[in-house]
C-alpha cells in the first residue's frame, strides 16, 4: 500500500515504481489468476504480485496514472478465446468492463487488439512487467501500452 496523495491504495509501491519507470511504448500485463506469470517473467518482465485483487479495480487505479498510447491503433490487447471456447459460445463480460474503464479514463473509445493465446504469451514475455492478480474471470488478461503526457499535463 502507498500512502501518498492521489495514489490509489490498491497501487503497491512495486507497481507504482514500475509504472513510473516505464517509457513510451512499454507494455504492462495485468494477468488473471490462471496466467503463467512466473514462467513468463523468467523471460524478462518484472513480476509484480497483486494476489487477492481483481483486475477491474487495479485497471481503474492504473488508468488514473498511466496514459495509454495514442500513437498506435490499439493501446490495449486481450487474449482471444481458443477455438473450442468460441465454439461453445463462452462469454467474457469482463472485456466490456475493461473497455468501459479505458474509455472513461481516456475520454475516447480505446481500440483493443485480440491476440491468440500462445501469441499473447509471446507478447507478454516482452512486457516491462506482469502484474499477477487474483482475477478469476476466464480470459481476464489485458496488456496496456504506455503513452505520453503532453507538456501541459505534466
3D architecture notes:
By secondary structure, the chain is of the alpha/beta class. 32% of the residues lie in helices and 18% in strands. It has helices at 13-21, 37-41, 55-62, 83-88, 93-106, 117-124, and strands at 27-31, 46-50, 76-79, 112-115, 129-133, 142-145. Strands 2-5-1-6-3-4 form a 6-stranded mixed sheet. It is globular, with a radius of gyration of 15 Å.
What integer is the average pLDDT?
96
- What's the shape? globular
- The helix/strand class is alpha/beta
Largest sheet: 6 strands, mixed
Q: Say what oligomer this is.
A: single chain
Assign a percent range to the helix content.
25-40%
H/E element sequence: HEHEHEHHEHEE
Low-pLDDT residue spans = none
Number of strands: 6
Please report which band the strand proportion falls in: under 5%, 5-15%, 15-25%, 25-35%, 35-45% or over 45%.
Answer: 15-25%
Q: Total number of helical segments?
A: 6
Question: Quick recap of the structure?
Answer:
With 154 residues, the protein is an alpha/beta fold. It has helices at 13-21, 37-41, 55-62, 83-88, 93-106, 117-124; strands at 27-31, 46-50, 76-79, 112-115, 129-133, 142-145.
Amino acid at each position: 500500500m502507498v500512502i501518498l496523495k492521489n495514489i490509489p491504495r490498491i497501487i503497491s509501491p512495486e507497481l507504482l515504481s514500475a509504472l513510473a519507470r516505464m517509457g513510451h511504448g512499454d507494455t504492462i500485463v495485468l494477468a488473471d489468476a490462471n496466467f503463467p506469470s512466473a514462467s513468463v517473467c523468467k523471460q524478462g518482465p518484472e513480476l509484480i504480485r497483486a494476489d487477492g485483487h481483481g483486475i477491474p479495480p487495479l485497471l481503474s487505479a492504473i488508468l488514473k496514472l498511466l496514459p495509454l498510447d495514442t500513437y498506435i491503433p490499439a493501446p490495449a490487447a486481450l487474449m482471444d478465446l481458443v477455438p473450442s471456447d468460441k465454439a461453445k459460445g463462452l462469454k467474457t463480460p469482463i472485456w466490456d468492463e475493461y473497455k468501459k474503464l479505458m474509455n472513461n479514463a481516456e475520454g475516447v473509445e480505446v481500440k483493443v487488439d485480440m491476440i491468440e493465446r500462445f501469441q499473447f504469451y509471446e507478447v507478454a514475455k516482452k512486457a516491462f512487467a506482469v502484474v499477477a492478480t487474483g482475477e478469476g474471470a476466464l480470459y481476464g488478461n489485458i496488456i496496456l501500452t504506455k503513452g505520453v503526457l503532453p507538456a501541459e499535463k505534466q
